[in-house]
Amino acid sequence: MKKWLVFSVFMMVLVLAACGNEANDSSQNDQVDSGTPGEKAVTLKLLESETTGEYLADSKGMTLYFFKNDKSGKSNCMGDCLKKWPPFMERDFAVPKGFEEKDFGTVQREDTGEEQVTYKGFPLYYFVNDKAVGDVNGEGVKNVWYIVNNKTVFPK
User: Fold this and answer.
1) pLDDT tens track of the chain, all 156 residues?
2) Element (H or E) spanning 57, and its range?
3) What's the pTM?
4) Domain spans, the chain
């Protein structure tokens, strides 16, 4: 009888341990991190909206924008502008199909000294009125804020 009880407890421990490992594995997969050295921890996404077509989003699906008044390699959005248009500062990301990693870089912000991500030299931003995945509320604001996609033509 004691052997049966010990065996049952042992089997329950094995089953519970297996269930615990499955839960850990699934949460790691959600982070797009394979654990392989050299692979990026997160991936930018190419999403689509009925109103704007395809657009670039961060790893959580939040839309990324560029400011037409920026210059390649320089942000002109400072002070109050940053309250509505926070800079995209993600580090170590992979790019979606249709984009080339070499087109992404960083620029050092003059106001904070932090590195802001750029696409083809232009700094990238979020819009505070985008609250959920799929929101593109910043598209065309004041005719100077636009979504980013692989067909974006930047001002010269």
Assistant:
1) 555 444 454 444 443 344 443 333 332 333 333 344 455 667 899 999 999 999 999 999 999 999 999 999 999 999 999 999 999 999 889 999 999 999 999 999 999 999 999 999 999 999 999 999 999 999 999 999 999 998 888 887
2) strand 53-57
3) 0.74
4) 44-147
What's the CA gap between 75 and 60, in Å, rounded?
24
Extract the tokens encoding 149: 């996609």
Nearest to 122 by CA among 153, 81, 80: 153
Q: What is the identity of the amino acid at 33?
A: D
Whether residue 64 contacts residue 56, with contact meaning beta carbons closer than 8 Å, is answered with yes
* Amino acid (1-letter code) at residue 121: G
Q: Hey, what are 120's tokens? A: 């083809």
- How many CB atoms are closer than 10 A to CB 85? 21
Instruction: Identify the residue whose tokens are 């942000």.
Output: 75
